[in-house]
Every structure is written in structure tokens, then in C-alpha cells.
Amino acid sequence: MKRFKDISVGSKLTLGFGLALLCTVTVGVFGVAQLRSLNKVTSEITGIWLPQVQIVDEMKRNLAEHQLYATLRMRTEDSQQMADIDKEMARESEEMLQDRRAYRRSAGSPAEQELFDQFVNLWTAYQDSLSSIIPLLDTAERTKAANEFEAVSLPTVAAAAQRLDGLLALTNQRSTAAAAMADRTYTIAQRLVWAAIAFAAVCLGVLVAWIRHNVSKPILAVSEAMHRLTRGEHRSTLVALRKDRRDEVGILFSAFSGYRASLERSIALARDAELERQNLAAAAANMPVGLCMFDAGRRLVFCNQAYADFYRLPEALTHPGSRWADLMRFRIAAGLYVGQDPDRYLEELSATIDRAERVVSLVELRDGRTIDLIHQPLPGGGWLATHHDVTDLRRSEARISHMARHDGLTDLPNRILFRERAEDALAEMARRDGKVAFLCLDLDHFKTVNDTLGHPVGDALLKEVAARLKQIVREDDTVARLGGDEFVIIQNGVDQPVDATTLAQLVIDALSAPYIADGHGVTVSASVGISIAPDDGTNADQLLKNGDMALYRAKAEGRRTYRFFEPDMDARMQARRFLELDLRDALGRQQFEIYYQPLLNLESGKVSCFEALLRWHHPTRGIVSPSEFISLAEEIGLIVPIGEWVIKQACLDAASWPEGIRVAVNLSPTQFRNARLLSTIVAALDASGLPANRLELEITETVLLANTQATLAMLQQIHLLGVHIAMDDFGTGYSSLSYLRSFPFDKIKIDQSFVKDAEDIDSSVAIIRAVTSLGNSLGMQTTAEGIETAEQLERVRKEGCTEAQGFLFSRPLPAREIPAMLERTRAVVAGDISEPAPETTGERKKERVSAGRLDKSASARA
Ligand SMILES: Nc1nc2c(ncn2[C@@H]2O[C@@H]3COP(=O)(O)O[C@H]4[C@@H](O)[C@H](n5cnc6c(=O)[nH]c(N)nc65)O[C@@H]4COP(=O)(O)O[C@H]3[C@H]2O)c(=O)[nH]1
Fold first, then answer.
1. pLDDT tens, residue by residue, 738-781
2. Do 210 and 187 sit in the same domain of this protein?
3. Are residues 542 and 613 in the same domain?
4. Ligand 1 pocket, Cβ-based, cut-off 6 angstroms
5. What ranges make up the beta strands (E) of 471-560?
């Protein structure tokens, strides 16, 4: 059901008026009824009672006059008078008759009727008495007549008059009652009218009050709120108003609320738009891009500060309305225009504006700046132009372009520019029917330098290498760095292969000279692989690949040298890749075995140690020498797990040997840098039960290259366990005697190349002597490697070596051959054997490769 407040104001007013009307009509109808009965009473009074009273009064007068005439008639004797009186009496009688008839027509109540009837009877009796008396007057019986008149007529008249009085009294009584009733009816009617007036007044009052409260006031409030809205006070406008009404006022409220909400939205939108406009204006004003807008009349609409600053415009020219032509003339006059013909320039610009086309152009200013100009025509005429100072950007682009094509460290061309230059060189070669040599080179042991001395030293070294290379090559040649220590030289105009070898040797010599890199003295050498176009290839990729293979060969064949590409190298590289795949599975397939070679203590004449030398039983190739796979294992990161296996297995084997015989295990630099090394050694000793002092670790000088605190700390920790540390291959690497002082080695192993040369080369003998004397003074054992003959043994013994190792005593053999090796060594010491042990089955001639623990080529001494 609808709530009252939800009924519309119109309906409420209609309802109110209806109710008021109903009440008023009811009261009015009642009042009219009262007035009607009043009218009836009044009619009765005037129409009935008053005439009756008049009739009765008339009858009373007629009766009295008739009685008077009758009395006179009794007394007169004059005949004339008698006749007149008779006439009058007849008239009176006639009038009486008329009155009686009139009265009878308006007969009243039964009591009145009865009285009237009594009166009529008495009148009739009176008339009758007179009728009998009057004739007596003319006779002598006048006295009798008089008596009779007094005795009968007069009392009858009196009685009749009495009846008339009674009748009059009754009539008066009824008319008085009717008057009283009329009076009452009038009072009621009057009260009803007043009540109706009062009710109408109250209704009107209530209506007015209601309208004031419920219509006028809200309308006023809405009007006031509208005024406040107009004044901008739109926040608290309708707080006092009821908003739950559903009538016209409610609709007005909600319309107002809707209007206010929409106004608020509009205001918010306008505020946002204004904020946006301000932001845009601020952005436009502060953006680093010069911005200007001209109208169709070529007058300035807007320009920002950057635009004014770009062209150093005076303030007067930056105001809206400034003419485009003035601005341009100012810019030309200020010397910012580069061309020769300013007028023509202006004409061209003007034509561009007329064409209303979007134009993007780069404008070079006389002061060196470059402006990126975008001219954008606007729909209504005019145009918007952005002026972007791209000077720095262009420089950056040039720099980025340089960086994209040059190596960041050395500033040499990188792979991208190398490829471009290679293509140019090959194209030129094709035109001139000449040759181009690709010299691929890298540094020998650069990785070791990097790993041990740190990257800053490595970087400094590479920079110096780049500088030296640039000095060597001709201007039209290209030196590029392809990554790491990988360089390539494109040598143009090669007539003969010797031109390439000359350059290669120059490179090797230049790069092998000592360096001071980041404060460290470093010596490296370089290897070079040469491929020559068009014989070895006609595109850069092929030539590079072939040059790399030649480089690999140069490194494999001793480093610090150069090699030309040969067609079969590809096949060898393939073989190496297969070897790598096999090596990855070798440990899991238990294809490794440790061979041992005895070391003889020259003072006691007994075997003091066996060196553990790893062998790989390859399923198809037979026994593979470590010189073939250790460097590969280093490269592919397998040396750590393989080395751990060797330490564990060697300790286990040695634990079963006679007391006092140690086992020596080779450690590659990579293994030594592994943090797990110490725990591996401890675990191997624990597992085998081998005393720590029966384990010897052989490290090369490269481990000590870095000579960092971490390296020395690791050595100390291993040494503290009781493990012996030997410096292996001494003399082949950097041969810095200072390394011997940096750590208390237990043993120095003099490389076998010195032993071999000792017979012919005095310097080798001198070196052996110097090392043994140094070892003696530092309390270190000195072991001569590679003893193959009794003479060599005698020589090293004479030079003071304390230990000897070589084929004379035994070749490296499996662990099960230990007793046989001990037997043979005793025979050698006793002088029963003076020839080197024969080569065993499957053992191949060892290749001297210079990587990892195999770094002991004779060439390294050079
Ligand atoms: N011509 C000649 N050679 C002799 C003579 N006496 C010993 N040799 C050879 O000289 C090498 C001595 O080992 P190395 O200098 O530590 O040189 C080792 C060592 O640096 C490395 N190597 C061997 N086993 C391992 C290993 O388990 N771990 C690591 N990291 N390197 C190993 O491989 C190198 C080569 O090992 P092998 O081929 O076994 O070669 C052995 C041995 O067979 C001799 O009188 N004449």
C-alpha cells in the first residue's frame, strides 16, 4: 500500500478538497433541511395560525358587533333604525358565515375543532334565539322579548364568545409553539452554518499549513538550494530536505539531486578537464621539445619556453599573434639558418605550409645543433610544429652505432664490423683477383691468467694485446676481437702465403713480449691459425672456421706458433668432438684406470713414491693418454669429478702398499680452484685409512700464478693435514723462483726436458744445479723427471737431485704391477739394468700438449 507521503500533492489536495466538500455539503444539506422546516413552520404560522387568529378575532368582532346590534335592536323602536340594524345584523351574520367557512377550511387540532363546533352551535343557538325574540318586539311582548334576550341570547353569545376566546387561546398556543420551533430550527441552522464555516476555516487552515510545510517550504528549500548551487555552494545544499518522499516534491527533490549530481559530475569533469588543461599547459610549457602552434592567418597561437629557447626568440615574438614571417626572419637574422638563400628557404617553407602536408625533417642549425622538426597541419587551418633538439641523440646514436660495431673493451671492430669488413675485403679480392688472409689468433693460457690474476688483469692484458696488434697491421687490414682472447686479422693484398706467415710471426713475437697488466707482470704467448681466401673458402664464415681449425692445430702442436689450414683438419676436429662425447661417459662407465710410476730416493736407493698417472680405456681406441684427454676434460669442466675419482682411488691403492711409500697425485689448476678440494682429500684419506703424510699432491706453477691469499690459504690447509706438496714440471712455465719462496713446498720436480738436454746443453745442467741447490737451501726434495738412462741418473745424482723418476726404473703401470716395479727398481739400483723399460702394449708415444697439467713443452723454456 502506498504510504501517505508517497501520494502526490495533487491527489492529496483533491482528497483534502473532497473531504472538506463532503463535510460542507453534509453540514449544508443538514442546514437546508433545517431551513426548510423553518420555512414550513413560518408558512404554518403565516399561512395557518395567523389567518386563524385573524378569523377568530374577526368572528369575535362580528359576534360582539352582532350582540351590540342585537342589543340596540332590542331597545330601538324606530323603524328606520330597526331596518338599519337588521341590515347590519344581517351583514354581521353574513360575515360570520364567511369567517366560519374560512376557519373551517383551516381547521386545526381536534380540540380546536371541538371548540369551533361548540362555537358554531352556540352561534346558531344565539341566531335562533334572536329569530324568535325579534318578532316579539313588534308586538306587545316587547318585555318578554327583552327578558328572553337577556336570559337566552346574551348568555349564548357570551358562551360563544368564550368558545372563541378558547379557540383563540389554542390558536395562539399553537402559533407560539410553532414560533418557538421556528426559533429553534433557526438556531440549529445558524449553528450549522457557523459550524460549516468553522470547519471550512479549519480545513483551509490545515490545508494552508500543510501546503506551507509540505509544498512551499520544500519548494523554497529547493529554490534556495538552486540559488546556492548557482553561487557555487553545491556541497551542503539539500542537507535539511527529506529525500524519501515520492510525491511531486519528492520528484522535485530527486530531480534536484539528479541535477546536483550531474552538476557535481560536470563540475568534477570540468575540474578534471581544467587540471588536465593545466597539466597539458604545464607539460607543453616545460617539455624539452619546442612546441608552437600557428593559426590559419600564420599568427602564433602558442609557443612553449623550449621553442623560444631553441631559437633564442625575444619575448615580444613569443606572444600570441606574432607573425610567423617575423619569427622566421628573426631566426634567419640570428644566424640559425644554414643554407645560402634565406629568401628561397622562406619560400619553400611557405609552400610547405600552403600544401598543408605533414612534414618530418631534420634541420641542421649553424651552431651545430640538429633539430628534428615535425610540421603537422591542423584541421581548421594553421599548423602545430614540434622542434626536438636531437643533437645529443644523434651523437648517442653515432656512439651506439660505434658501440654496436666495436668491442667495448678494446675498441676493435667486433664480430658485426668484422663481417662487414670481411665481405668488403672478399668483394675487393674478387675484383682484383687477389688473396685475403684470415689470421685467427688467441692467447696461450689466457684463461689461466684471467682465472688466477683476475678479470681486471685479463682485461688490461687484452687491451694491450689490441694495441700491439693495431700497431702491427697495415691501415687497410682489419683487427677484430670476436670475444674473450679471440682475435682475427683480415690481411688484404696477400700475394704469397709467406705474407701471412710474416704477419703471423710478427703477431706472435709482439704478443709474447712481457706485459705489465694492471700492475702485474704477465707473460703470454699467442697461437695463430691462417686461412687464405679463395683457396680455403670464399665467405667469412668458412674462412673463420678454417682459420679456427688451423689455430687449434697450432695450439695442439705446442702453442706460440702458427699453422695454415689444411683440408684434413676438419676431420680431426670431428674426431675431437667424438672424443669429447665419449669422455663425458667415461667416468660413469668406469673406463678410467690409474697407472703408477715409481720415484727412487737417490740417497736410500729405495722407492719412495709412486706417481698416479691416469689412463682411459677407450672402448675402440684402446688406452688413451692423459695428454689427449686431460686438456679436453679441463675445457669441458669434467676435470673436477675425474680428479676427485683419481684422489680417492689413488689413496685406496696406496693404503695397501708397503709402509713409507707415498702416492703422488696430479692436480690441475681447475681442481685446485674448486672449494670442495679440501673435503675431497680429507674424505679420500678417511675412506682409505692412508696417513696424510703418504699423500703427495703435484701442482704446477700456473696454480700459483695468482698467488692470492685464497690460493695460499688452501695450500696451507692441505699442508696442515700433513699432505706433501710438490712443485711439478718446474722450469717449463713462468719459472719464477719467487714461487718457491711463497710456499714451503716439500718437493721440486725438475721437468724431464732439462734432464734430456743435460747431456748436450750446458744451460740445462746449470738450471738443474741451481734448482737442486735452491731446494737444498730451502729444505725441499728435488726430483729429476724423465730418467731413461743410467748416465742421466748419474748426472742428476751428481748435480744434487735427491729423487729420480723415469722409464729407466719403470714405465707407468697398473697398480697390480707395483711388486714388479719395485723389483725392477732394485735391479736398476744394483746396476743390473741400465736400459729404459720397454714400451707396454697399448701405450703410445706421448704427445706434448700444452694445456692444464700437461703444460711442460720444451718450447716453453724458450
Ligand atoms: N719420455 C718420457 N716420459 C716419461 C718418463 N718418465 C715419466 N714419463 C712421463 O712423464 C709424465 C709424468 O707426469 P707429469 O709430468 O705429471 O705429466 C702428466 C700429468 O701432467 C698429466 N696427468 C696424468 N695423470 C693425471 C691426473 O690424474 N690428473 C691430472 N690433472 N693430470 C694428470 O698428464 C701428463 C702426462 O702423463 P703421462 O702421459 O702419463 O706421462 C707421464 C709419464 O709417463 C721418461 O723417462 N721419458
1. 777 778 899 999 999 888 877 776 777 888 998 899 899 889 99
2. yes
3. no
4. 597, 612-614, 625-627, 630, 643, 646, 666-668, 698, 728-729, 752, 786-788, 805-807, 812, 846, 853-854, 856
5. 478-483, 486-491, 515-517, 520-522, 525-533
